[in-house]
Amino acid sequence: MTLRELAVASSAKTLETLRGDIVRRYEELSPRLQQVAKYVLENPNDMALQTLAVIAERCEVQPSTIVRFAKTFGYEGASDMQELFKDEMLTQAPSPSYAERIRQFSRRAGAAGALAPQDVMHEFADSNILALEHLKSSVRKADLERAVDMIAGANAVYIVGLRRSFPVASYLAYALRHVDKRAYLLDGVAGMLAEQSTMLTSKDLLIAISFQPYAAETVEIVGSTREQKARIIAITDSRLSPIAAASDLVFEIKDAEVRQFRSLTASLCLAQSLVISYAFDMEKRGRGR
Amino acid sequence: MTLRELAVASSAKTLETLRGDIVRRYEELSPRLQQVAKYVLENPNDMALQTLAVIAERCEVQPSTIVRFAKTFGYEGASDMQELFKDEMLTQAPSPSYAERIRQFSRRAGAAGALAPQDVMHEFADSNILALEHLKSSVRKADLERAVDMIAGANAVYIVGLRRSFPVASYLAYALRHVDKRAYLLDGVAGMLAEQSTMLTSKDLLIAISFQPYAAETVEIVGSTREQKARIIAITDSRLSPIAAASDLVFEIKDAEVRQFRSLTASLCLAQSLVISYAFDMEKRGRGR
DNA sequence: TAGCAGTTAGAATTTTTATTTCACTAGTTG
DNA sequence: CAACTAGTGAAATAAAAATTCTAACTGCTA
């Protein structure tokens, strides 16, 4: 069956249906058309604003291929298909009364009343952005460098973080392993948390993550690790936190909070930064030799 | 003094300056040019998307008049001026190619060389902020609402996300339980992933989270879930992702990426928003009774 | 009311853009 | 392995859009 034959029927009338069509038929498209498909899905703005030649160049394809693509999906030609993208842009583009819209939005978000999912999401996104800004200004350069040194100097890194902190802990373990650092996640599967933590020796590093209300198990592990003379980095929300006192290095993270619900964005961002910095550091030292 | 003479100098470099110029010189323009000026100020979108002929017709003027207008303000021709409007549209339109932008951003930030941990962290924080901004503009209202409905309507929610996606999955499971929704994390402990997933019935919901390179196990679970006729929400990075096709609802999330290392910020923010929106929804219905 | 500067509409031209065609490649089938 | 087929790139062609040009119009002044 040729592409031409495939084309016959469809010709989507809205961008959404076109998107659906593309996704559905993606597999059966030829390599070049798949290339176009990908670009089309990811750069609708270009489709609306640029000429065929430009689009073609950007997907590394001949202009004629774009035309073929359009015909495959039932359009007269590429221009015909472009109309859809232009329409889409018009309907969702900030119209001249943009300012008015912003005003309405913030009013809406501020009032406790109507809370459509979208409002919630915007509120979260905004709070998280604030939290990240705060992170940038509050974490001290020296602390980051020390943390990287501690990771680099450790034989292995053990990570503990339960309940709400678990995602951060699991991310940290995953990422460290990916940059070839031995990392063990103390996850307490089968109630073996205490047992898992006895593995720590004085050459290891424990990264403990805990926020209010601090999980008792995490606090305990920090305590017993201290006795084994391993080093400890704490990621927590206050210097007074029960895991802070016993730690060699404390990162105090204020994460976003929207109506009771705490976020993890800033903590995760810190975790990422530590791992990547460590990776860069290793690379540098490697080259240094 | 002729219009031609007036033209000499200017040629505004940004839309804002052009707008200023137009307003300032409006009085001294000829009637036809005033007509164009009015239209230009009020319909910037048309200027970006339409051809001269269309614009001309809409301001009830000859195409050549538009060209004269552009020259009056110091441009080579009308096309030249149109570029401005296109640019403007690109920068302030919800840009799906934020992914590209984020990538460029980090490439740029990285090229500088100096890679102190603090620089890394700032880079991450900034990329994450971009990703969150993008999230705000790219996730559609209707999709969020549908997702909340699906969660509300499900007997139980099963969540799968492996490797890099695991933190998001574990957070979702944790948070859903906290708002009293039955949630099971398919974590594959003891290699029981397949067994865990057979628990799903047609009244349940599966939330699958997977990013490139898509974990084979996740793809499999989505497939078998489909067969069991349960509903599926996918959180993934492309409509072409292997878990997208079988899903009832797809969230396409472009997370920040700094030198190979993908972030999870946007995905987590979406997860949070879903859970909290669900909680609000429950509360509202509860009060309704 | 003749003459003039500035403006305009519309046709003519040039340039750009889209589409079609064709020749070539690689892969498949009998 | 020959004959086909789908897919592709590149050049040729067609279409369209933008720009320029010219003749005619407007309102003003002498």
SSE blueprint and pairings:
Two copies of one chain form a homodimer.
Chain A lengths: L2 H5 L7 H11 L5 H12 L1 H6 L2 H7 L4 H10 L5 H15 L5 H13 L6 H22 L2 H13 L3 E5 L4 H13 L4 E4 L6 H5 L7 E6 L5 H12 L3 E6 L12 E4 L4 E2 L2 E2 L2 H24 L1
Parallel strand pairs in A: 1-2, 1-3, 3-4, 4-5
Antiparallel strand pairs in A: 6-7
Helix pairs in contact in A: 3-6, 5-6, 6-7, 9-14, 10-14, 11-14
The structure holds a DNA duplex (30 and 30 nucleotides).
Short description:
The structure is a homodimer. By secondary structure, the first copy, chain A, is α/β, with parallel strands linked by helices.
Fourth CATH level, the homologous superfamily of the largest domain in chain A: Glucose-6-phosphate isomerase like protein, domain 1
Number of strands of chain A: 7
Number of helices of chain A: 14
Poorly predicted runs of 5 or more residues of chain A: 1-9, 96-112
Please give the largest β-sheet of chain A.
Answer: 5 strands, parallel
Give, in spatial order, the strands making up the sheet with the most strands of chain A. 2-1-3-4-5
Identify the CATH class of the largest domain in chain A. Alpha Beta
Q: How many domains make up the coordinates of chain A?
A: 2
**Structural shape of chain A:** elongated
CATH fold node name of the largest domain in chain A: Rossmann fold
Largest interface: A-B, 73 and 69 residues
Structural class of chain A: alpha/beta
- Give the terminus-to-terminus CA distance of chain A: 60 Å
How would you name the oligomeric state of the polypeptide chains in this document?
homodimer
> Mean of residue pLDDT of chain A?
83
